[in-house]
Amino acid sequence: MAEIVRIDDNTWRFEDGFVRFFLLVGGNKAALIDSGVNCPDALDLAKALTDKPIMLINTHGDGDHTSGTSSFSQIHIHPLDYTKCEVNTRYPGTELAEIHDGDVIELGNRPLKIIHIPGHTSGSVAILDSNNRVLIAGDSVQKGHIYMFGQKREPDKFEASLDKLISINGDYDTIYASHDEFKLPKDYVCKVKEDWLKVMSGSAPYEIVDLFGNKVRSYTLDNCGFYMEDL
Ligand SMILES: [Zn+2]
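A: This is the predicted complex of the input protein with zinc ion.
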C-alpha cells in the first residue's frame, strides 16, 4: 500500500514504491494527479482524506502512473497518451475526458492549468497549481532517469517543452516530481535542459544497458539521466 504523506491541509503525496502521485483538494472538488504503479485502491485511499468528489487527472499514460484508473469512470488525460500509451485498452471501463494545452480545471478557488509538454510521451502534461505556485511535471523534470526510448516518446519535442516551462517560471516556485526527489526548485527545468542539450549534441558519455529486454543508452549526467534509443 502506498505511504501517504501530508504536504499541507489540502495536498497529499502518495509514495507508491519508486513512483509518487498527488491529491489536490479545492473548495468544491478534488483531483488525484496520477494513480501509481501498484495502487488499484488509490481512489479509496483518497476518499479517506476528503469528502469532495474526486476526479482523476494524469500527467501522462505510462503504466507506472495509472494503476488506480479502473476505479474511476473518467480519466482526464491528453488524448495522444490515451491511445499511444494504451490506457484505452488497459482500462476499457474508464472513459476518456480530454485535456489540452491551456485548459483550466477549477477545483474551487484552486485552478489547475494544463500545459502540454510532449517529449517523455506525446501527451505528457504539466499541471500548474497556480495559487500554491507549484508545478507538477510528471516524469519530464526529475533527478532520476527520464525514459526517452520507444514508440510513444517524442525526444525531438522535449527541448521546446522545457523552454515552455522555463517561459512561465514566474508562475511557480517549486516542482513536484513523480520519481526520485519529491521537491525541486524551479530552476531545475534549466538543469534538465542543460543535460538534455549535452545528450543531443552527442558530447555526453553513455553506457548500453538492458531495460525490459531493450538495449538502450543510459546517460547519467550532472542533474538527471536519460534512457535513449541506441541508434
Ligand atoms: Zn514514471
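The longest strand covers residues 19-25. The first helix runs from residue 42 to 47.
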